[in-house]
Amino acid sequence: MNRRSFLKITAGAAAASAIVSTAPAAPKRKLRKAIMYSTIGVKGSVLEKFKAMKAAGFEGVEPMGAMNREEVLAAFKETGLQAASVCDHIHWMKTLSHPDAGTRQLGFDGLIQSLQDAHAYGATSVLLVPGVVQGSGIGRGDSTYQECWDRSIGEIKKAIPLAKELGVKISIENVGNNFITKPEQAAQYLDAIASEWVGWHFDIGNVGRNYGPAERWIQVLGRRINRIHVKDFGAPPPADATKKGRDRPKLLDGETNWPAVMAALDKAGYSGWGITEQPGNQAADVESARDMVQRLDRIFAL
Q1: Residue 77: inside a domain, yes or no?
Q2: Is 21 within the bounds of a domain?
Q3: Which domain holds residue 223?
Q4: For residue 219, what are the contacts with CB-CB under 8 A and spacing of at least 6?
Q5: Which helix (H) or strand (E) element contains residue 117?
């Protein structure tokens, strides 16, 4: 090879290398940003709230069940946002674990309504709190652990045929209800229901605050996780324990081990919606909501 040929090949290789190095990197993971409707702090109509979240950079919203369906559909259409999920609107008030059959029926009806709403919005998951156990400290405990287990499973199984018909999964959320406090119990609960139409809506912050670490739950639940709530947590100092909001700092300002959480989600093969459920004052206007979106981007890039 003469000197001219060598220089030509070397220059070509350098140019190719430069093209590769400057090409945009492929996204590390396929996650989309959404916000729970009830945590949007912007004042105004459904459309006004949706427009503000669109301007902030969100791609989706998680509406509550039993909202004005036509109003929500119109807001989705005008903004181009998508339904990330639907949150059952009545599961805390009319629980599926309640000893009164009439109250459980109201809770079941609320689940059915939420499944129908999700189908209308194009969502494929409904968030459900299955019941509340006595001693939860939130004033709504109405059953023992075993009663909550048995009653809620019975009601959920009745809703599975409709969930299958509509193509919408029922996703159990871990919350501070004194029920299912270990990931192994969550897996056993889903095993007892034994349906591909029932999975988990994993709340990262709720687990971290009460029953962590979050990454351990992800490792156990794996592909049974249908949706995630992206929420941070921080233990308030004893002197400030009565102050609201101290346990839910801004994303990345709390105690969540985000690199470990994201690594666990990757290993579980999770993709799809990452839905924030931070306090409303953190999405009180476009600027604060945009800050939340940017924090989500940083978490998703870890």
Answers
A1: yes
A2: no
A3: 30-300
A4: 183, 264, 267, 268
A5: helix 101-121
Type and span of the H or E element at 266: helix 258-268
CA dist., res. 135 & res. 287, Å (int): 40
Q: For each of the chain's 302 residues, which pLDDT tens digit applies?
A: 444 444 444 455 444 444 444 444 445 689 999 999 999 999 999 999 999 999 999 999 999 999 999 999 999 999 999 999 999 999 999 999 999 999 999 999 999 999 999 999 999 999 999 999 997 666 567 899 999 999 999 999 999 999 999 999 999 999 989 999 999 999 999 999 999 999 999 999 999 877 889 999 999 999 999 999 999 998 655 554 444 444 689 999 999 999 999 999 999 999 999 999 999 999 999 999 999 999 999 999 99
d(CA 82, CA 114): 16
Number of structural domains found in the chain: 1
Place of tokens 């729970």: 36
Give a yes or no: residue 3 inside a domain: no
Considering the entire predicted model, what is its pTM?
0.88
Tell me if 180 sits within 8 A of 220, measured CB to CB. Answer: no
Determine, yes or no, domain membership for 13.
no
CATH number at residue 164: 3.20.20.150
Cβ-Cβ contacts under 8 Å for 23 (sequence gap 6 or more):
none
Contact 135, 178 (CB under 8 A): yes
